[in-house]
Amino acid sequence: MKRSILCLLGTFLSMLVHGQEISDQVFITKILDANTERFSKAAREIWENPELGFLEYTSSKILVDELTTSGFDVETDIAGMPTAFVATYSTGEGPVIGFLAEYDALPGMSQDAVPYRSVIVEGGSGHGCGHNLFGTAVVASGTALKEWIDANNIKATIKIFGTPAEESGGGKVYMARDGIFNGVDAVINWHPSDRNAANAASCNAVIGGRFKFHGETAHAAASPQRGRSALDAVEAMNMMVNMMREHVDQESRIHYIISSGGLAPNVVPDYAEVQYMIRHPDIVELKDMWERIGKAAEGAAMGTGTRVDIELASGLYGLLPNETLAKVMHKNLSLLGGVEYDEEEMEFGREIQKTYNSKNIPPLESAKKVQPYQLTFFPASTDVGDVSYVVPTVGLGTATWVPGTAAHTWQAVAADGMSIGFKGMMLAAKTMALTGKELILNPLLIKEATNEFKERLGDLKYEALVGDKKVPLDYNVKN
């Protein structure tokens, strides 16, 4: 009899909790549905004003204004970056949940929101990675979560981090280095995609830099013995590094370009420059590769009678996955489902897919689906990686692009500026808000995520790969 009563009581309590979960979900999604036009307008405005990294003055102001209107306290000019910000809303002691916002564009990606190639500004920038949607969805999510906190008298803190220059410059690195994410229990983010997925993801760490060789000019025919060719040094270095490829881990990636090789063939060049970018999943292995490449540069300089200056340009950690958080996010994304197109959007999608040069094109209907959960790896890099080594971090992707679209393409820019992009953006906002809500209500989840974070981190202590390098605010400034 007692066991029956306890079972009934347990069932009743479970029903109450489940009922509250449904009520919270309805509350949050209704707020976001009611504000779809507002946030679509903001995303479109950022799309119409594409700005490169560290130059996102208009874009960051649009988001800051939205947050201020919603009742957040906003600080700008964070970690030496004028376009960085931290927006905070707090109702007292409780969980601290952070969200990452991006809003920088890509050079040379100008494109109208139409399903055929149509450049708006020749050589102009464009949102080929959907960061106009990225930052806006985060602001929308934080706004809805704030309303839910107020309506339920909950003690918690929301922090929205405006992070410049993800594409070029790595703004989050300087924020992580300066301790901006200290005190945050968990960080939530997302990225535009051609599919819906919330996985525990890892990726490559990356280091990039310039090797500047200095020699002596001379007439290449009349007095070549007087010259010391900086270009010879670049070529000698490249040859040594290319031989090194046989003797590095197979997961390594080594890319380079000769960015300066002289001005005239009959003049021995006294200056030449090569830019390198290297990647590897393991940060220790990556550092060792960079040291070896540096020695190749020094050897090339010694052998050619030149000298070399090595300039570290950037360094990003890979993502540290967190399955505890990812499974929560996957559950919420699955509850919401994918993105459904109307007939006009279907026609847009059909026309976009005609422009692909791939044979394996997923059906448009795949935008409705949520991909199965998995532990994944992607070979590219992101400055979110540095954040993930400071605080437990989770992310997702939603179908803001027509299925089959690759990032950094005009097809992505086109969808980012119209309703297909906006629908995916609002799905991301809902998923992030529901995930934030669940973490706030269940501190044990945060504890579990923190324990997993510490276990994966092991003995590694986070130190920014850029060292004490100043923020390269002029990275995208043309001289």
TrEMBL record:
Stored InterPro entries: Amidohydrolase, Aminobenzoyl-glu_utiliz_pB, Bact_exopeptidase_dim_dom, Peptidase_M20, Peptidase_M20/M20A_hydrolases, Peptidase_M20_dimer
UniProt cross-references to Gene3D superfamilies, sorted A to Z: 3.30.70.360, Zn peptidases (3.40.630.10)
Listed SUPFAM superfamilies: Bacterial exopeptidase dimerisation domain (SSF55031), Zn-dependent exopeptidases (SSF53187)
Signal peptide: 1-19
Residue span(s) of domain Peptidase M20 dimerisation: 207-298
Domain of life the protein comes from: Bacteria
Membrane-spanning parts: none
Protein's recorded name: Amidohydrolase
Pfam family membership, one: M20_dimer
Keywords from the named record: Hydrolase, Signal
